[in-house]
């Protein structure tokens, strides 16, 4: 099974530099255009989806609809964004800094009512494994940058620490014999 795990398009909170995790904000005009371009990328590559999933958050659902031009997708809570606790809707500059040598926020949000990175990654792994076990062919799942990063960490994928998931970034995975393998990271806005 081929899984295209994708981040949503730009939102209002992205535009103004606010933290958004469990809270939501709508796609901007640019975010809508980014989703359209991602849809064009899939069309140009002749990638058709046998099934489509999205986080329950509005920004992911809207992106899934724009990219696929379909409404027959399934919403899945396990694909939602990392909960940042009290940092939600606050300026990004207020978030804690990584510990020396760390490649994520680890458990830094937990004392403020947020999630631990491993919990987010495990939640994503459970959700994506259930999709992979249920579906065959090619699947699109629209999620969020923090959750996508946490999933990579739980899988133990060795990635460059400078890798960032911009809006509409895509991780192409192959699921075989009960495990995920990262095939490539795609920036559909750069094509």
Automatic annotation (TrEMBL):
**Pfam families in UniProt:** His_Phos_1
InterPro entries hit by this protein: His_Pase_superF_clade-1, His_PPase_superfam, PG/BPGM_mutase_AS, PGM_Phosphatase
Gene3D superfamilies in the cross-refs = Phosphoglycerate mutase-like
One Gene Ontology molecular-function label: phosphatase activity
PROSITE patterns referenced in this protein's UniProt entry, alphabetically: PG_MUTASE (PS00175)
User: Quick one: which residues bind substrate?
Assistant: 7-14, 59
A single GO CC term for this protein reads: cytoplasm
Xref: PANTHER family: BROAD-SPECIFICITY PHOSPHATASE YOR283W-RELATED, HISTIDINE PHOSPHATASE FAMILY PROTEIN
Could you tell me what this protein is called?
A: Phosphoglycerate mutase
């Amino acid at each position: 099974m081929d899984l295209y795990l994708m981040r949503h398009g730009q939102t209002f909170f992205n535009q103004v530099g606010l933290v958004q995790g469990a809270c939501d904000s709508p796609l901007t005009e640019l975010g809508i255009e980014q989703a359209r371009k991602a849809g064009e990328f899939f069309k140009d590559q002749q990638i058709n989806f046998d099934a489509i999933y999205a986080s329950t958050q509005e920004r992911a659902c809207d992106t899934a609809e724009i990219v696929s031009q379909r409404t027959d997708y399934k919403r899945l809570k396990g694909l939602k964004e990392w909960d940042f606790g009290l940092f939600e809707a606050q300026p990004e500059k207020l978030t804690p800094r990584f510990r020396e040598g760390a490649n994520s926020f680890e458990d830094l949000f937990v004392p403020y009512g947020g999630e631990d990175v491993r919990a987010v990654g495990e939640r994503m792994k459970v959700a994506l494994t259930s999709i992979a076990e249920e579906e065959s062919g090619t699947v699109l799942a629209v999620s969020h940058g923090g959750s996508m990063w946490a999933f990579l960490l739980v899988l133990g994928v060795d990635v460059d620490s400078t890798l960032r998931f911009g809006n509409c970034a895509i991780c192409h995975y192959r699921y075989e014999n009960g495990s995920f393998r990262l095939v490539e990271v795609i920036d559909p806005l750069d094509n």
